Amino acid sequence: MTQAGIRYRIGTAWRRLACAALLAVGLTGGLAAQNTPEERQAAIAEWLEGSELDGLRALAGLARAGDTDAQLFLGLVDKSTELQGPAVAALTRAERLELLRAPGGMSGRSWVDVAAAGGDPLAQAWRDLWSMQASLDTAETFARAQEPRALAEALLTLVKRQDTGFAPDVLARDWYPPALLMLSETRVLREHDAARLHPGDPQQRFGPNGAPQAQALQDWLAHSTPALPLRAVCAAQCAATQASCVMALYTALGDYEALVTLGSPVAALVPDAVFAESPRGQAALARRIMLMRSTRMREAERQKLTEVDACAADWLAVQYDAYTMRKLPAPE
Questions:
Q1: Other C-beta atoms within 10 Å of 157: how many?
Q2: Helices (H) and strands (E) in the chain, counts
Q3: Residues 6 or more apart from 126 whose CB is under 8 A from it?
Q4: pLDDT higher than 90, residue 66
Q5: Distance in Å from the first CA to the final CA of the chain
Q6: Which of 11, 61, 164, 197 is a good FRET partner for 36, with 20 to 30 A between their CA atoms?
Q7: What percent helix, strand, coil does the chain show, rounded to 5?
Q8: Whole-prediction pTM value?
């Protein structure tokens, strides 16, 4: 069988699995679960599998027809550059606005604003976060909806805006995530919080124990929820060197806050595990790393990453190359 045939069979099989997983979410707890249309799940599955323009165009049609879940999803893709692949990057500004935004004004309107105006609570929480109206209630909304990426973004944004961390009673709330215990009033990890965490948790460097040892960090990366996107890439791309691959990608990301804000645009529609294992989710990780570095820095860093894991370094290089002008796909 040709390589193209193999890729087709793998892609088709993955799409079937993704559709089944997404349909299960819609039937057992997704947003507007009782009315989740199969068209939306199929569109999202196409986007996840790598047919991003086909998937996004289908979502745009549903958004224009009034599907608030499609509006929210499309609006978050529009807002998050790392979620946009080479096909979107190759579009003209006018084409991108037509694809990702609602009609209105010179640059269109965010579909999140449209969904928020229609009463969608998650869209309203995102709108508040972006418009400086966020509060701890916004963070709690994301927490209760089981949206970990949004929750982390909300808490990190609040800390930056108020220039201080959270009081002990906030860190003790039942919805507050262990992944951000470092955001105390003094921005120091408290001793009893440090004791709750894995010895290799990167938050330890803010507490009495100091930065974790390499072996402890590697163990944390091998088992923790925040590191799931790294493990998914390495399992798929560098199976023979998974442990060192994960360490290399963590090194490339170079930022714990960036790690905890990786994930699905809307976990209620695409569970984080499904997103992490998808071609789109893995490409999003690479582009997040890419956007944090200049072209010159990327090349210099590649040499250092090769010493940690050559497979991970090569995979990142291929992902970066997909966004060079000579490799961007021709407009469809």
A1: 17
A2: 20, 0
A3: 72, 75, 76, 112, 116, 150
A4: yes
A5: 28
A6: 11
A7: 70, 0, 30
A8: 0.87
- In this structure, what is the dihedral angle of CA atoms 215, 220, 226, 231, given to the nearest 10 degrees? 70
What's the mean pLDDT in 267-286? Answer: 97
Interacting residues of 303 by C-beta distance below 8 A, sequence separation 6+: none
Under the banding of pLDDT at 50, 70 and 90, the label for residue 299 is confident
CB neighbours of 209 closer than 8 A, spacing ≥ 6?
194, 199
**Which residues share a beta bridge with 166?**
184
Residue 64 contacts residue 101 (beta carbons within 8 Å): no
Task: Quote the tokens at residue 149.
Answer: 């990426």
Sequence-separated (6 or more) residues with CB below 8 Å from residue 271: 21, 25, 264
DSSP structural state of residue 180: G
Amino acid letter, residue 301: E
Q: Where does 76-161 show beta strands of DSSP type E?
A: none
Q: Which residue, among 126, 100, 102, 106, has the nearest Cα to 114 in the 3D structure?
A: 102
Q: For the chain, what is the radius of gyration of the CA atoms? A: 20
